[in-house]
Design goal:
This protein has about 350 residues and is of the alpha/beta class. Helices cover about 50% and strands about 15% of the residues. Among the domains are: about 110 residues, no CATH class; about 140 residues, 3-Layer(aba) Sandwich (Deoxyhypusine Synthase), CATH 3.40.910.10. Helix 7 packs across helix 10 and helix 11 packs across helix 12. The longest helix is centred in the last third of the chain and has 22 residues. The radius of gyration is 24 Å and the shape is globular. About 40% of the residues are buried.
Length: about 350
Amino acid sequence: MCVKSGTQVRDLKMDFTELVKSNPYLVEKLRSFELKPRSVRDLLKDMANTAYQGRALGEAYEIIVNMLRERGNTIFLGLAGSMSTAGMWKIVKWLIDNRYVDVVVSTGANISEDIYEAMGFNYYKGSPYVDDSELLKYKIDRFYDVFASELDYRKMEGLIKEFIYTLPNGAQYSTAEFLYLFGKYLSERGIDCIVSAAYKVRVPVFSPALVDSGYGVAAVLALRERGHRVVLDMVKDFDQIVEIGKRAEKISAIYIGGGVPKDYVNLVTVMQTLIGLLEKGEETYKPLEYVVQITTDAPQWGGLSGATLEEAVSWGKVSPKARKRVVYVDATIALPLIVQALHEENIRRESKPDFSWLFKHL
């Protein structure tokens, strides 16, 4: 048996100490969470020094703060899922009111199901453990653990239909133009929702899958009821959002969920390269500089909703040097915390893009 001398042990400790000092992986210390009175803002900042999705949420908040403080930065919000029925739509409206986001890309559901409540109807606490055939008898629609009246839902779709009747028969619009005019219509009627808020501050709202919602129901009913047609030009729609990206000095994004809204924004960056080839004969990259995604989707299934932001670097969608973070958590948990902290932070953006050119012909 070999026994080390005291000198050898001391030398060994010194070697390990030097190894730790020079180790590139042991740099920033994790800090155990301590209970104390604190704001939500300070809560998230302290969580950024812990681990797992707590750290991810804290770091995502720090990235959003830096995103808002960056001059010349155009911020896109991708909004998927069923956020409005879950009571999150006023958060989105607040972000628009305060110009914390400059462009919104949403599913049709999120920008119609907020109108349902803005009209004075209510969502109700429900349960996924019910007899859905009984709900059908009572004309109750279920969104997981949320209940809504189908009859009131139809009134919301009827409001969209009545707006469509105010448009010239056969008129063609991008979704941003259509929703801008609808926002004006709602604003004049005192209906305070996402698209009316966006109209007031000239934030464009795009919805590339708009008909996959009450908007599609309303449009088809208008067509069959009176032969009144509205045409959504999706090529024009995409061209407009690509032009926003082209005019932007820098581009950043916040994704709530994934799906079509996430990819629509991602493709804005891809198009900058292709337009550069077309117009200048050379590739010009304009990837996302700051990007945060809140999602419960995982990357191993191969879908876009779960695709990592690192994967997006390979497409030129996200800068290799971008400040980026995915938070794998339910958005109804993360979004209220982040926005409450932003409210406490009271950031005033120094520069916001002007989109008057997009709406001047309407």
